[in-house]
Amino acid sequence: MKKAIMVMITMIYSGLAMADGPGVDNSTADAIRQALSRSTVININTTPIEGVYELQIGNSIVYSDATGRYLIDGGSLLDIQEQKNLTQSRLEYINRVDWDSLPLDKAIVSGDKKAKQKIAVFTDPDCPYCRHLEKTLQELKGVKVYTFLYPIESLHPKAREKSEAIWCSRDRHKMLQKVMLENHTPDAATCKTPVEEIAALGQKLNINGTPAIIATDGRRMNGAPRSVKQLEEWLASH
C-alpha cells in the first residue's frame, strides 16, 4: 500500500505550466505544493466543498485538504505524511472478525503448529488466487495456519466435491496441496464434512471471494498477497 501511494505522489510531469483557479490563495497553493513536493501539481481549484481542493496531477485529478497532507484518490482517503491509506485501515477495522468465534476444529491445520502467530484462510480448491496463496504459505515461517474449505460453486462447480473429498482424506493438508498445486483429482468423499457449516459462516462474515485471510486481531485481507514478504508485513502491521 505504501508503494502504491508513493507511485501516485511521485509522478513527475515536467515542462507543464502551472496555473491555479480563482479563489485559491497563494498560501494554500504553496502549502499543498510543498506537501506534494515530489509531484508536479499543474492546477489547483476550489470545489463546492469548503476546504477541499481539486488537484490536477498529470492527466489525473485528486482532492486535497488545504495542507496537502490528506488526499482523496479513487475512493480512498490517503495520509501522505504517514504514508497510510486511511480508508483501507478503517475498512479493516469495521470488518474485523472475532477470532474466538471461528470453529477452528473444522479447519485444516498446517504451518508451524507450535507457533503463537496464527492466521485463518478461507479457500476454494479451484480458485487460481487460492492456489497462488497456497504456494506462498509454503514459504511462510513461524505461523500456524487454519484453512477453511470454502468452495464458491457459482464460479467453480466442482469445488464443493473436491472440498469434501479433501476433508475426508487421511492427510487433509497433503491432499489439499495435491489438489491445489498438482491439479490432482481426489477420490469421492466418504464422510460427513463441515463444508456446509463453513459456507454459512463465510456468508455471515460477508466473505464474498477467495482467498480471505484473517489475523488473530480480527483484521482481514481479501485476496492473495503478491509475496510472502507482503503477507509477513501485513501480519506485523497490527
Automatic annotation (TrEMBL):
Keywords of the record: Disulfide bond, Isomerase, Periplasm, Redox-active center, Signal
Domain Thioredoxin-like fold, chain residue ranges per copy: 113-235
UniProt entry tagged with the keyword Signal: yes
Pfam families: DsbC_N, Thioredoxin_2
Domain Disulphide bond isomerase DsbC/G N-terminal: 30-88
TM spans (from-to): none
Taxonomic source organism: Mariprofundus ferrinatatus
Molecular functions per Gene Ontology: isomerase activity
InterPro entries noted in UniProt: DiS-bond_Isoase_DsbC/G, DiS-bond_isomerase_DsbC/G_N, DiS-bond_isomerase_DsbC/G_N_sf, Thiol:disulfide_interchange, Thioredoxin-like_fold, Thioredoxin-like_sf
One Gene Ontology cellular component: periplasmic space
Subcellular location(s) of the protein: Periplasm
Family the entry assigns: Belongs to the thioredoxin family. DsbC subfamily.
Record function comment: Required for disulfide bond formation in some periplasmic proteins. Acts by transferring its disulfide bond to other proteins and is reduced in the process.
Extent of the signal sequence: 1-19
CDD domains tied to this protein: DsbA_DsbC_DsbG
PANTHER family cross-referenced by the UniProt entry: THIOL:DISULFIDE INTERCHANGE PROTEIN DSBC (PTHR35272:SF3), THIOL:DISULFIDE INTERCHANGE PROTEIN DSBC-RELATED (PTHR35272)
Protein's UniProt name: Thiol:disulfide interchange protein
Domain of life: Bacteria
Upper classification of the organism: Bacteria, Pseudomonadati, Pseudomonadota, Candidatius Mariprofundia, Mariprofundales
